[in-house]
């Protein structure tokens, strides 16, 4: 319990309302408490300040006798919007509702915390994005145990990672909304700092206390699922579950299994690769538009589960050929049959998010509308299965597609067509479904019919021609008589209300009928509620089937989306080579080509030609070429068609990219440090089956250091690692590498200097570039003339002083035939080289030597 204090001013005691607030607030110390006061959720004191800052709300003050404290509030009716923002900002929120009616004005009503919300455990549909929403936990002990839980679908999985960088890469793929760290990590300042920098999400060490995790696991699963034998994984899985159970107090019946997966079964994609390839998000900070990402271009799915699956496939490409061919077969079938594709996508468009629906069903939280949506979706399944049945590669989908027809029929028989959202207001259940309900409704109906007849009968009996029967909320049913006819009102009528020119009456019979109607109606609503709960429970029996249907549909949706993209954008089916051949004909960058005309380019590599040195002026298109190569390889291993006329590729185990400068100023690391860090990771991790893309390595330091590092890295990749490497560089010196390395080649991106300046062809051709056009690009960018002129003269003198140094010396060395060189000749040759390297002309060199004698 807290200290019962509230930031404020004045000597007075806390008023009772605030005392109640402080008590609840202190019971949930790590949460931001939203405290219902009538139509508003309020926060007070410091929390009011936090809330107003977070949501940009006006800060007011709550004032009592001799006491005042800051106050901020949000209207109850728009709470969802604000909750969504708070969760996104990483808050945990406790919602305290008034749980009794305010009967007297001054009485303090009871309030209780009715909901806990944290970013990683959201179940409420209107607070969720279509994307998966993961809660992650990490602990150590013979590697890192990583557990991930998506409460909204029940997906529960985990893995063991054996290095910190592998852990980060994996986390970066899943992008958890909230992370629990075991105490040994949470209290490790260096780790915590680095972690927070990389993943600015809600962090805590909760769920790891003593045995709560184990207890939670044993309660959830009996026996424990396989895969939890690893101690660190067991701890993390337990923590995730315990934490989620604390928030979702009604339990997590939607969590039915745990899957331990092996990251080695997928292509490794480092965090840098996911970023630089702009698969999910544009890397340019100022640009948040998703269109500029691979997902933005390919994301033609029509259902939420399909969208989540596409994301999952993109972040975990496969490394085995057989399943990829199966995916490609399915995509191809839908590419070839445009009518089928259109039909399938049309049906999918009408499907609801069955995956989350199944989770809500299991959690006992499905609303009448959920069931109606389920029914409509299930009713589409036979049609879909029919569409797929005749199509070879899609046949297995149709076979795996369950047909819970009985459930759909049951819902259709029980539920009205367009049910209300709430289950407590009645109007849910069809006539003729439940005899008891029908009877209650019948009774109410009889009462209403009696009242309907009453008007005519009473007019006749009393002779009051304009007598009316009416209803209002305060008095119930009444008979209304206007002033001129007051004398005709029978004695036994009881006056209810007198208005200006009319009076309202009741009779014992009317009251009796009214009571009957009311009672029948109340009971009917109760009965409807019970019937609905029963229906929901029965439907929940089919939740596993619904979930499986959702999975099959998601897969179909992804195939159809990939096929749609393939047709729409002119992609072709990739082939996989066994001998390591890589042959891309007319490859394109899938995202860049969407927004501007694009020049396709070829690429040809093999184990015998696996290092490509790519030169060319700035802006020529070097990094675009590197990126498109990576994207084509990635798409192929997702099972998608690729943006190329044709493409044959080896199956890569990893894609590494080191492209563009990514500063990490917040993390206190220079551009160069980040670059070297990433390079180190690549050189350590890459294998002969990896695709490595390096752009201007060594740029961040002095020219010679940079050149030397670039050179050495190339050599290492060529000789030791033997990875497929594309190396884009401005160091012209590196174009000499192919002279010395058997499997290295030169290529350049063509540009030509013309009268008007530099013309870019964006065309990749064999051989090195003729020169670097840095100054020309600078001129295009509009650098002042004076600066350009000065740069030109500096460049001239630099070039003069280096003249002959690299190219000529290398040439001479290479041409020297040692078998025919005497020791003296060799010595003289060496001296001449040394003089040249020192930058001395022959006469100067002679003079210097004489002076030394
Ligand atoms: N094949 C292509 N067809 C059409 N436009 C292209 C092509 N390749 C690149 N571009 C365009 O040219 C511009 C420069 O491309 P890119 O960034 O790849 O050049 P770069 O050679 O890597 O430059 P720098 O050396 O300055 O990094 C981009 O705007 C890109 O859209």
UniProtKB/TrEMBL annotation:
Entries under PROSITE patterns matching the protein: DNA_MISMATCH_REPAIR_2
Binding residue positions for ATP: 616-623
Protein name: DNA mismatch repair protein MutS
Role, per record: This protein is involved in the repair of mismatches in DNA. It is possible that it carries out the mismatch recognition step. This protein has a weak ATPase activity.
GO molecular function: ATP binding; ATP-dependent DNA damage sensor activity; damaged DNA binding; mismatched DNA binding
Family, similarity comment: Belongs to the DNA mismatch repair MutS family.
Domain DNA mismatch repair proteins mutS family, residue spans: 690-706
Pfam families for this protein: MutS_I (PF01624), MutS_II (PF05188), MutS_III (PF05192), MutS_IV (PF05190), MutS_V (PF00488)
Annotated PANTHER family: DNA MISMATCH REPAIR PROTEIN MSH1, MITOCHONDRIAL, DNA MISMATCH REPAIR PROTEIN MUTS FAMILY MEMBER
UniProt cross-references to SUPFAM superfamilies, sorted A to Z: DNA repair protein MutS, domain I, DNA repair protein MutS, domain II, DNA repair protein MutS, domain III, P-loop containing nucleoside triphosphate hydrolases
Name of the coding gene: mutS
HAMAP family per record: MutS (MF_00096)
Record's keyword annotation contains DNA-binding: yes
Keywords on record: ATP-binding, DNA damage, DNA repair, DNA-binding, Nucleotide-binding
GO biological process: mismatch repair
Provenance organism: Meiothermus ruber (strain ATCC 35948 / DSM 1279 / VKM B-1258 / 21) (Thermus ruber)
Xref: InterPro entries: DNA_mismatch_repair_MutS, DNA_mismatch_repair_MutS-lik_N, DNA_mismatch_repair_MutS/MSH, DNA_mismatch_repair_MutS_C, DNA_mismatch_repair_MutS_clamp, DNA_mismatch_repair_MutS_core, DNA_mismatch_repair_MutS_N, DNA_mismatch_repair_MutS_sf
């Amino acid at each position: 319990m807290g200290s019962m204090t509230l930031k404020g001013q004045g000597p007075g005691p806390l008023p009772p309302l605030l005392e109640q607030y402080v008590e609840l607030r202190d019971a949930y110390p790590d949460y931001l408490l939203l405290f219902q006061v009538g139509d508003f959720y309020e926060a007070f004191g410091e929390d009011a300040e936090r809330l107003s800052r977070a949501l940009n709300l006006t800060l007011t003050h709550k004032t009592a006798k001799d006491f005042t404290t800051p106050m901020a509030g949000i209207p109850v009716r728009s709470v969802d919007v604000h909750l969504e923002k708070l969760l996104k900002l990483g808050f945990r929120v406790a919602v305290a509702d008034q749980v009794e009616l305010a009967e007297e004005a001054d009485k303090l009503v009871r309030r209780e915390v009715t909901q806990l919300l944290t970013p990683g455990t959201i179940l409420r549909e209107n607070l969720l994005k279509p994307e998966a929403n993961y809660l992650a936990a990490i602990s150590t002990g013979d590697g890192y145990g990583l557990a991930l839980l998506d409460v909204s679908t029940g997906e529960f999985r985990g893995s063991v990672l054996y290095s910190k960088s592998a852990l980060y890469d994996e986390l970066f793929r899943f992008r958890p909304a909230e992370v629990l760290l075991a105490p040994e990590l949470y209290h490790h300042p260096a780790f915590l700092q680095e972690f927070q920098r990389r993943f600015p999400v809600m962090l805590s060490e909760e769920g790891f206390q003593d045995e709560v995790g184990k207890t939670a696991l044993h309660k959830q699963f009996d026996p424990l699922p396989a895969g939890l034998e690893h101690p660190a994984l067991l701890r993390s899985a337990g923590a995730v579950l315990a934490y989620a159970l604390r928030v979702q107090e009604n339990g997590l019946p939607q969590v039915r299994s745990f899957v331990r997966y092996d990251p080695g079964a997928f292509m490794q994609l480092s965090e840098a690769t996911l970023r630089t390839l702009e698969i999910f998000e544009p890397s340019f900070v100022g640009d948040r538009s998703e269109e500029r990402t691979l997902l933005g271009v390919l994301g033609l799915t029509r259902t939420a589960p399909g969208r989540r699956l596409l994301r999952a496939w993109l972040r975990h490409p496969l490394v085995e050929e057989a399943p990829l061919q199966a995916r490609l077969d399915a995509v191809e079938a839908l590419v070839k049959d445009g009518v089928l594709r259109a039909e399938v996508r049309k049906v999918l468009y009408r499907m609801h998010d069955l995956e989350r629906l199944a989770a809500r069903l299991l959690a006992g939280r499905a609303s009448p509308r959920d069931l109606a949506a389920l029914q409509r979706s299930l009713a589409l399944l036979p049609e879909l299965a029919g569409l797929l049945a005749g199509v070879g590669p899609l046949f297995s989908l149709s076979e795996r597609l369950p047909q819970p027809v009985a459930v759909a029929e049951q819902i259709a028989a029980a539920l009205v067509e367009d049910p209300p959202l709430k289950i407590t207001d009645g109007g849910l259940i069809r006539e003729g479904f439940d005899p008891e309900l029908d009877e209650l409704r019948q009774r109410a109906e009889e009462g209403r019919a009696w009242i309907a007849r009453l008007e005519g009968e009473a007019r006749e009996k009393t002779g009051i021609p304009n007598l009316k029967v009416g209803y209002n909320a305060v008095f119930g049913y009444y008979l209304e008589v206007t002033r001129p006819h007051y004398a005709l009102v029978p004695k036994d009528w009881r006056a209810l209300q007198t208005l200006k020119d009319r009076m309202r009456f009741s009779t014992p019979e009317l009251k009796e009928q009214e009571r009957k109607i009311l009672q029948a109606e109340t009971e009917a609503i109760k009965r409807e509620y019970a019937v609905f709960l029963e229906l929901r429970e029965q439907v929940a029996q089919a939740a596993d089937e619904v979930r499986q249907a959702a999975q099959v549909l998601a897969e179909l949706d992804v195939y159809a989306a990939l096929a749609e993209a393939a047709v729409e954008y002119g992609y072709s089916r990739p082939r996989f080579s066994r001998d390591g051949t890589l042959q891309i004909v007319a490859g394109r960058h899938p995202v860049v080509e969407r927004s501007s005309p694009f020049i396709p380019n070829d690429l040809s590599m093999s184990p015998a030609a696996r290092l490509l040195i790519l030169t060319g002026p700035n802006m020529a298109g070097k990094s675009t070429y590197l990126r498109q190569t990576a994207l084509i390889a990635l798409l192929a291993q997702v099972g998608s068609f690729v943006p190329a006329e044709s493409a044959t590729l080896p199956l890569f185990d990893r894609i590494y990219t080191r492209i563009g400068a990514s500063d990490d100023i917040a993390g206190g690391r220079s551009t160069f440090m980040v670059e070297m860090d990433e390079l180190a990771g690549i050189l350590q991790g890459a294998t002969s089956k990896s695709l490595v893309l390096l752009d201007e390595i060594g740029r961040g330091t002095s020219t010679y250091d940079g050149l030397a590092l670039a050179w050495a890295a190339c050599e290492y990749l060529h000789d030791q690692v033997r990875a497929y490497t594309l190396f884009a560089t401005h160091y012209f010196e590196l174009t000499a590498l192919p002279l010395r390395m058997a499997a290295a080649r030169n290529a350049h991106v063509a540009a030509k200097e013309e009268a008007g300046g530099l013309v870019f062809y964006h065309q990749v051709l064999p051989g090195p570039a003729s020169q670097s056009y840095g100054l020309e690009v600078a001129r295009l960018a509009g650098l002042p003339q004076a600066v350009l002129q000065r740069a030109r003269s500096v460049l001239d003198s630099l070039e003069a002083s280096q003249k002959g140094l690299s190219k000529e010396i290398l040439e001479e060395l290479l041409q020297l035939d040692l078998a025919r060189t005497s020791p003296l000749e060799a010595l003289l040759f060496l001296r001449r080289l040394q003089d040249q390297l020192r930058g001395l002309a022959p006469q100067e060199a002679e003079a210097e030597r004489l002076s030394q004698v």
